[in-house]
Amino acid sequence: MTSQPGAALHPRLQEIVDDFRDVPDKDRLQLLLEFSQDLPPLPERYAEHRDRMEPVPECQTPLFLAVEVEPDDGKGTVHLYFDAPPEAPTTRGFAAILHAGLDGLDADEVLATPPEFSSQLGLADLVSPLRLRGMAAMLSRIKRQVREQRAGP
Fold this sequence. Notes:
By secondary structure, this protein is mostly helical. The chain has six helices and three strands. Helix 1 packs across helix 4 and helix 4 packs parallel to helix 6.
């Protein structure tokens, strides 16, 4: 399953989009910063081995991600891990949104996420287009890793 333009968001992502839409424009950046504080720390297997993570050079700040797909649970449950510096709250916020919305979903649900979903957050006037491209790049790399892991070695 791949995403279609205008495809429905998974309910978890839709709830996040609704949260952003429900706050006035001036408060959306604050909400993004609050998400940045909720980005989980890396497990030791990645914290000590950043070389096992994929860099996302489209982000203005160094960001690394790792995707794990559980092959033997029947659904291909996806787990996401992000490493972004604390002094980069926008990048961390985007990573935290993706983590909150996608971590624990099955592979088909992750792959069905529309690439343009970040535009629904209402941040276009608050953050640079380059930052929004960084979030889109994170999602693109997550989907690529999910597809690769499902295909096997």
